[in-house]
Design a protein that fits this description.
Shape: globular
Number of strands: 9
Radius of gyration: 18 Å
Structural class: alpha/beta
Distance between the termini: 34 Å
Order of helices and strands: HHHEHEHEEHEHHEEHHEE
């Protein structure tokens, strides 16, 4: 299960303002007229609160009471839309009850992510849409780093659910139910970032894949791979050469 205390979610997952505004505008444009929008894994409101401000009618579900408590705090003590604790693979809504579903960085945490996809399709009415950000597949450099961690720690470095380079599997699962896939416009974050931040997050246990790893093993692996990466790529605190790209996939539910 997602652990917001270990992830330090609001600090480590916050989007830079320019990127956050661009994401909210893209999602609001896609979801306009498709309310109510169910955000699965609504968390602390990182996506839902800006969408509410833009006039999108939201509902939220999350498995974590801690996350929902933080959502309430972020909303000045009163969440401005209905929320419930619920499992993505067993949503508490009738067939066709919703206008759309939004799932951002959620499917990688769900071992039976195909069951969640089936639920998304069940609860969205014909003509609605399902909008997903499954995460970026990563650059060749990022994959080299993941391979190094895997050589030390094994398969644990991969997500328990949908992996970040498996968007085609998601597309096939959706189209197998008759949905049509669309790629929303790319959102490019040109703000400089350093790969050294990633190693700090691994060492501190902020990445979800690190939670099953014993602390000593996690720190050892982070230090070993960082030392290798410094030899391979140079200064890890220098701006990383690849910009971060956010790209949402929209799946139109057949009418």
């Amino acid at each position: 299960m997602f652990d917001p205390d270990r992830a330090d979610y609001d600090r480590t997952r916050a989007l830079p303002k320019g990127l956050g505004d661009a994401v909210a505008e893209t999602l609001a444009s896609e979801l306009a007229g498709k309310s109510p929008v169910l955000e699965v894994g609504v968390g602390t409101g990182r996506m839902a609160l800006p969408l509410i401000e833009r006039g999108i009618g939201m509902i939220g579900v999350d498995l974590s009471a801690t996350m929902l408590a933080r959502l309430r705090a972020n909303a000045a003590g009163r969440i401005p839309f209905p929320v419930a604790m619920a499992d993505a693979t067993r949503l508490p809504f009738g067939a066709g009850a919703l206008g759309s579903v939004l799932a951002v960085h959620v499917l990688h945490l769900i071992p039976d992510w195909r069951a969640a996809v089936a639920e998304f399709l069940r609860v969205v009415r014909p003509g609605g849409s399902i909008v997903v950000d499954a995460g970026a597949g990563g650059s060749d450099r990022s994959r080299e780093i993941t391979d190094r961690f895997e050589a030390i720690l094994g398969e644990v470095v991969h997500n328990v659910g949908l992996r970040h380079d498996e968007e085609e599997l998601l597309d096939r699962a959706m189209t197998g139910h008759g949905a049509r896939v669309r790629l929303l416009p790319k959102i490019v974050d040109d703000e400089p970032h350093a790969i050294g931040d990633y190693f700090r997050r691994v060492r501190d246990g902020q990445m979800s894949w690190t939670w099953p790893v014993p602390e000593a093993d996690r720190i050892r692996a982070a230090d070993q791979v960082r030392a290798w990466a410094e030899q391979r790529f140079g200064d890890l605190n220098a701006p990383w050469p690849e910009p971060r790209v956010v790209r949402f996939r929209a799946y139109d539910v057949p009418g």
